[in-house]
## 1
Amino acid sequence: METVGFYIFYWISRVITLLPLKALYLLSDFLFLLLYYFPGYRRKVVITNHRNAFPGKSEKELADIRIKFYRHFCDLIVETLKLINISSEELAERMNYENPELLDKLFAEGRDVVLVYSHYCNWEWTSILPSFTGYKCIPVYRALNNKHFDRFMLRLRSKNKGTPVAMSAVIREILTNRKDNVKGLYGLIADQTPPRAEIQYRTRFLNQDTPVYLGAEKIALKYDMAVIFLNIRKLRRGYYSSKMELLFEHTSGLEKYFVTDTHVKRLEEIIVQKPEHWLWTHRRWKY
């Protein structure tokens, strides 16, 4: 039944994403009504997350953030599906990189890079990054439970010359690339919740004690990589701009947890400025 359900979803998605994004946003508007009102997709999770993250805001302010979030979330759904049928040229126009010269400089210096980003704005459209740099772009992922959706997402993330690699295989990938003298940019989404058994560190994030992954820090320190934070901004519907912020050019010898605390703090600053663009349906504090 799981397989049948996936293929129904897949072929419907292939057909409807032949439509331009302008038309797909009408579908997003309809999805908003379903997910926000009837009966509300993970609404209790979102309400709880907002109240805990922003204790100083009134219920009216939180309700305003919540509505804006669900509208953005529905846009994100159709934008992700549109990856099935969108050209690299159109995607590059819609997901712009402001300062690729930073990567040019690090590439010329022979530096490998850890790119830290999050479930903020549209992280799936960052798959166009290989068009802006000479780096081999390696988004590091954790497999989805549903094998069909896992393969589906891997195909989408590989369309624009990206080379997705499972977290369990990233060290082998680094060693292979270094042996072949290939400069690698390793992208890690750093705001996910580790399984309870894998929690090694907690920090303060959005007014809450929060377990965080240490993968980005461990890779950077072990191989003395530069660390860049990817700051994505939503300009308007269907258009984003990304700025690469150099957090560390060299990481060897840095104090333990310093890299992690730095990128977590930067993400918090961005979320506080525009909270509606973060993925609040995620059970980030389930432990």
Note: The mean pLDDT is 94.
## 2
Amino acid sequence: MSRPRSALFLLLGLASPAAAQTASLAAWTLASGDFTIYGHTNSTPTVTLRPRIVYDTARGTDSARVVDSVRVTGTKPAGLAAGLSAWPADHYCGGITSGAMQSLDPRALLGRIQLAAGCGVRLVIVPPRRLLTTNGQTAGVFSVDSAKRLMDRYAKALPPDTLFKYRATILGLNLADDYGCTRCWGGTAITQAQVAEWAAYARVKLPGLPLGVRVTPNWVAAYPVLAPLLDYTWAQYHTRKGDQQTYYDNAATLAKRLGLRVVIGVNVEDCYGVGTSACGAADLIRLGTPAVSHPASCAFINWRYDEATWQQSEMREAWGKLLALARARPARECRRTEFGLSTLRQRASVLSHKKCRKV
């Protein structure tokens, strides 16, 4: 199709239907690149521009995005956030879970959060390990500089008012995991001092986003500088960790002393210890019930989704019972109490104004 004809069709496509006026030979021109199109018509069309808006918090829409003014109404999360890590995106809507822990590249971050918001799923964001290492490899040595660069990319995708809008959807951001596993991190363990430096930077770049570590709070307590920079810790059980109730109670008590929340769950992939078999349906009910019912938990997130296991009807039935218990509990946040709603609103407003100020 020639450029002049394409431009003409574009012009006519912008017009909304309108009653033809009295016939007259109205002349018109249309500039299109190197061409000027001349023509006339025997009626005068009424041109209606479709409004396009910049998303903003007041209208419940995303900042830094210019899109057609059509959006999907979100589903408010109900009950205690509960589910599995690596939960498939195509299970978000219509599934029985209300929470997930997901490894998300910055390019996929906002889209996945929007999907979760529309489906009533709450997310724990996990940075891809390859983006945290010195060599860009999953098994590389952890780098604070790499972690800070990733926060810059996350902040670009999630400006302050967007973070505020999705406050109910984002449970938190895990600052890596497996800190003491040298095999996991190129032969060098991650230290509390490194995580503290990362957390301090993330606080500035992503104001109001809850930050946590996927480890029990005693790791945090060993380095007092770290706790004030975090919102939550983690207590993930398998049977080699001793009495389950004692394990959860100790984690909850210490977390409270540090001013932190705690995510409570079960390692359903390694039910009897790392490298052992997965939990069966009876194991799920036995171990999952005290986990989902613990009064200190801010979420019930478990390791991890396996498609073959999920296909078993008895496993889905067991999960259904556990997730029903979660829905019966009130929704909770995994953030420190001092980072309340008014504080987040104020921070988002201040940073948004700074971003718009002329230099």
Note: Residues 341-356 form the longest helix (16 residues).
## 3
Amino acid sequence: MTRPPRVAFVVHLMQVAGAEVLVRELIHRLGARIVPTVFCLDAVGRIGEELQREGVEVVCFHRKPGRDWGVSRRLATAVRARDIEVIHAHQYSPFFYSALAKPLCAFRPKVILTEHGRHYPDRVSPIRRAVNRLVLDRLANAVTACCHFSAVGLCKTDGFAGSRIDIIENGIDVERYGPPADKALAKEDAGLEPDRKYLIHVARHHPVKDQPTLLRAFAAAAPDLPEVDLLMVGDGQLRAELESLAVQLRIATRVKFLGIRADIPELMRAADAFALSSLSEAASLTLLEAMASGLPVALTNVGGNPEIVRHEREGLLFARGDVIGCADALRGILRDSELAERLGAAGRERAIERYQLSRTVNEYYKLYCRLTGRGIDYAP
């Protein structure tokens, strides 16, 4: 029987974010069909610690600030020691070090670059673009992106050959999400007040997520939505500033900062609407979770968002940084019950039809098999 491919996932750190959640799901769902190792450039992270407790090998290289050329040497040593066949690098920096490690392994491992989100503003130096086009692109055996927006950024901004970029869309476990049979009971079960409405936002507290715009928009709409509170789920470097801003806007009693939560499906079922105010976004997993939960959504018309949500079909889109537009969208999905129901139902249908995690995992597994010369139907 053919042995399963030995796959190394290379990331910055295994934090609670989209790329890292995908790595965890690939490991869990592929099970014995691959032999996984996780290489972290900077730190193990919360998800990395969880995987270690499950028996998955997670190695950290503790990268130094700036270009730490020793990372590629240590990565190559680790790859050779484990006889790694596929290096699956998530985001540019992990790919950069993985590509440079490949010649040190006699070019044996196949290297995949998967692009998730893009920086905002999305600019790179001419030198980086030239190195990508002339060197790094040739060291990649496959290049994938989670949405068309990310693929375009890889090509037009980073200089990778557009003809070879495949799009493997993000997916979620749709079965974990869905509208509750009894909304009031779902709210009670989540520790919320059954007679209140809740707008939920799930994201790390980071500048690119632009939570200040959401808070200002909620403050503008709050007088028209006296029965609505805002749930801020997540954590990060800006949490204290956001809490202070809520006080300044005089909405602190209407905003609940819940931190990182493990009960996202339950919170989604208890919520009445979802909002995302990012400056840039690729294919947000929390957006897909909200859609699968049947929630009407309001979000910025940036990046991959309009690929997933079509304006006035699955949700309402507003311009980046547009407080007034965001406030209007919040009023729309929270005051017009008929609109909310229509958008929520359409969003759930779209999530079921297009964004199933099983499809995403299967596409990556087929890629591993193709690169290693194994049959697609291989099962241990």
Note: The domain at 6-171+357-372 is CATH 3.40.50.2000 (Rossmann fold).
## 4
Amino acid sequence: MRKIALAAGIVVLIATLHACKKDKEQPAGTVSYNSTALTVQVPDFVKTYVGDMKQPADNALTVEGVALGRKLFYEKMLSDNSTISCGSCHKQENAFDDPRPFSQGTHGTFGDRNAMAIVNLGWNSAFFWDGRRATMEQQAHDPVTNPIEMANTWPEVVKRLQSSTVYPDLFYKAFGTRTVDSNLVVKAIAQFERTLVSYNSPFDRYYYKGDSNALTAQEKNGLLIFKSKAMCNNCHLMNTQFTDNQFRNNGLDANPADPGRMKFTADAGDRGKFKVPTLRNIAQSAPYMHDSRFSTLEQVVDFYSGNIKQSSPNIDEHMPDFGSGLNLTTQEKADLVAFLKSLSDQEFLTNPAFSEPK
């Protein structure tokens, strides 16, 4: 009887241990997860001009996915020596841009193009200065393995995150699996980046919301110059985005050293063409142009006013064809710069929901 009782006890113990093990592993696929759908809130005027934000069918926004993406955006384990993250080169106070002319990688090397701001990218269909990536997920993939950026490998990143005490649970909450892979990493980062929307500048309050006192007299005059004599809105469309998301040669050089979009397409017709960046929060995203040649907005306006290289190959049709520029007066330049500064959205630049999680 004693042996029978002992045997029965062992069976119960084994069954109990097996049940515990099953409960622990069960969330890997046999138990549903309750992710919470998320809609990024934007003003109605944005939807009127450009419609709803584009979202891929296989990566819909969720509260849990965005939370995971936010943590990964600031996660230094993504780099080979765990010293830099996405947030190291895309700083919130700089409109998620890099205040340095060129971003520095883990081994002290520098890139050859200025980092681009991450603002309202959910309405974009091409990424990087040359448009070599078509989705935000693809864009988030590249820096990890770039030898002059994070210089890591995806298998190493996956191993680190999988071994973490916190990430498997976060991946389960976001995607219903504790198994980490590179596709889910970039999906989460892309979800977070889609929430980085900026539509509450003084300009927005004046132009779209009818607050006549939101802009100063100088800023209002700068707006008129922006739309008329300066012709800025030909490429930086006032459709709430302040970019047409096209690729254009703005006449920086007669003989461009950087081939621009041609490096990606191999089409000579794309030589010297770069993506038109948004002007939102432009005062915070210096330096300017793909090669960071201008450190101030005043220098940018000076270039367009009188230093455009008309002989540049494939120069854009919207570049002024009279002389070498716009020939703005000193006062017009100052007014235009004042208007550009009114595109700064302090709420966006300081929103704690976008900052590094504690």
Note: Strands lie at 247-248, 274-275.
